Structures are given as structure tokens and as C-alpha cells.
Amino acid sequence: MGVTDRFDIVSESAIRDGTATDAYFQRTEETLAAADRNPNVVAEVTRDQFPTGEFDVLAGVKDAARLLEGLDIDVDAIREGRLFDGGPVMRIEGSYLEFARYETSLLGFLSHASGIATAALEARVAAPDSSVLSFGARHVHPAIAAVVERGALVGGLDGFSHVAAGEILGKEASGTMPHALVIAMGDQEAAWTAFDETVDSDVPRIAICDTFSDEKDESIRAAEALGDALDGVRLDTTSSRRGDFRHIVREVRWELDVRGYDDVDIFVSGGLGPADLRDLRDVADGFGVGGHVSNADPLDFALDIVELDGEIVSKRGKLSGTKQAFRTPDGGHHVGLADRADPEGGEALLEPLIRDGEIVREFDVDEAAERASRDADVVGFRSAE
Questions:
Q1: Which pTM value belongs to this model?
Q2: CATH number for 368
């Protein structure tokens, strides 16, 4: 297969063998090998050196562990789903050349997934009692759809729409019908009825209700067409036509209720962020969130050597010495030297991940989501927003 016949995707083998790296790491390897220099180091992955009061969610730890598995190193890391605020999220100890070439991929795994999970948690806490699904896979390269959807789950969302990601993650993809079905059928009732007659009965009957007519009209018609089979309506109104979206949702609710369709749920999607969810959470039953999660900015992690052959060291702007991060009883985040006294009642967050090249931790996305939810309550994540 020629280069022009391939998708522009770096292969898994390139990630595993370390060629998915920045060129200067290869040149560093060459230089150190030529100088017969391979120091024993402690290196830490950090976002901020000191706590700032702004918490983020750590994700991507599973892929990072798989990347470093088999190397002659020890790794400690904060558990996936836990919230952190400054200081190290991962620590690597071993000969520098054992892991030097993997820095680029390691940071990419952690940075991108953590940004996505943090954005997902923002959406989750904005509508804690609503169903919230990730609909954003269409905004990213398809090769990383599972990264997006896993990050969405770690942040606490209830599900996602991408089929192939679901196969990787062992989760069933969610979603019912797009506007394209209605347009292709040429008629709303024909589309809703054909869907009901065709699709497996386990799939909820959620009718898209804003294609050719207004939301109230189509919602009433969907309820009349499907009757008891209708589980809900989805309003995906284009922003240019939206006006007062909250009023539209309330109007649809009123008109469904007054006709006896009070058991029909209302789901809302279309460019929604946390502020929209907070505004609509008392009038809508669920949400589809896209770009806010999938397009989240990666967190700016860096990897720095903090000990060299047993002596503390650091570049300018970074803190030397092996450190530990703690959750304090008041919900704070404390960063201190690992060999000094713990803060009173503090919980050490960096725990063993790899020992002598072997992964010593299990990974479960549901448990990660539970950790994120607990930590969000403890630290008051985005509580002022």
C-alpha cells in the first residue's frame, strides 16, 4: 500500500516502538549513547508546579501504562478519574534512556484524555440529575474516537454515540435518528413510523422533532403517530433558529402534558455547554453534548527530570526533588517532598502503577468515573460556576 492510499494515522506499532516521538529525543539518545552516558533519574509529569485552585481530571493512565509496560522502570501515578491541582500526576524512576523516546506519546496520552475528561465532568456537574450523552465524535479524527468516548465516561457522562468506540470500550453506543432519516423519508410521520417498525425494540424511540416544522408541532405529531411506543423527543434546533431555547422546551413540555403525553421525555442537543445545561436542566430530561467535550483543549503536561543519579536537580521554573501529591481533609491539594512528613490527615495520591516493568494496577472506566464524582464533591469542582 502506498503512502497516498493510507489514512494519515500513526500506527500503534510506531507508538509502541517509540518512533512516534519528537526528533530531538532520537538525537538525545544518539548523543548520550555516544558519550556512554545513561544516568539514573526521577522524572515527573506535571501541569502546574503549585496548586492554583483550579482542579482537573486525570485520564489516559491506562494507555500510558501500556506504553511504558515492559520497560525496566518503576512508575507511580495518580489513579484515573481523580482530580488534581498542581504537582506531579506521574513519576518515573529508572535509567533515562529506558524511557526517553516515549515522552512525546506519554504526554499526548495524558494531556488529550485529561482535557476531555475534565470537560465531561464540567458537563456532568452542570446537570447532575439528567442523562448526558457524548455526541462529539464527529468533531475529531476517527482514530481517536474511543479516546473521546472513554474520557467522556471517566468524566461521568452516561453514554456516547460512536459504534466503533463502543466495541473497543465494551459499551453499547447510544443514539436513535438524525434529521437525515426524516429528510430521506420525505415526511416526519413516515420516518418515525419506519424507525419504530424496523429498529430493535431495545432501542428507545426518541423522535427528532425540529426538521421541517417547529418543535411543538413535530413533538405533538410524533406522540400522536407513535402513541405509547414513543419514549421521548429530541430537539436539536439550529442556533440560528433557536431564540429562547428554554421557552421552546417549556412550551413543548406543556403541549405534550396537556394532551396526556406526560411520560414522553424531552432531550436537547446542538452545541450545548455547561451553561446551557444549567439553564435547561429543570425543563429537559437529558442532553447530548458534543464539541464542549470532544473539542476540549488538552492539558499542558510536561515531563521533567527532578533527580539525577540521586541528586536533586531541575530546569529553571521547575521544582527539584521527588514529590508527592496529597488530598487534604478539607478537600485541598497539597504538594510536598516525598520524603518529608505528610500533611496531617492527607491522602497520598501517587500510587504504584508499574514495578520492574510490570503493570500492577487494574483499569475500570466505571470505577474511574466514581472517583471523579467523589472528588468533584470533595473539592467543590466548578461549584462557583
A1: 0.95
A2: 3.20.140.10
Residue 107's domain comprises 9-116+297-379
> Rounded to whole angstroms, how far apart are CA atoms 318 and 315?
6
Domain co-membership, 92 together with 185: no
Q: One digit per residue, pLDDT tens: the chain, 385 residues? A: 566 678 999 999 999 999 999 999 999 999 999 999 999 999 999 999 999 999 999 999 999 999 999 999 999 999 999 999 999 999 999 999 999 999 999 999 999 999 999 999 999 999 999 999 999 999 999 999 999 999 999 999 999 999 999 999 999 999 889 999 999 999 999 999 999 999 999 999 999 999 999 999 999 999 999 999 999 999 998 887 888 999 999 999 999 999 999 999 999 999 999 999 999 999 999 999 999 999 999 999 999 999 999 999 999 999 999 999 999 999 999 999 999 878 888 999 999 999 999 999 999 999 999 999 999 999 999 875 5
Domain stop point among 294, 315, 333: 294
Q: Are residues 185 and 283 in the same domain?
A: yes
CB atoms within 10 A of CB 374: 13
Q: What is the largest CA-CA distance in the chain?
A: 82
Strand-pairing partners, residue 359, are: 354
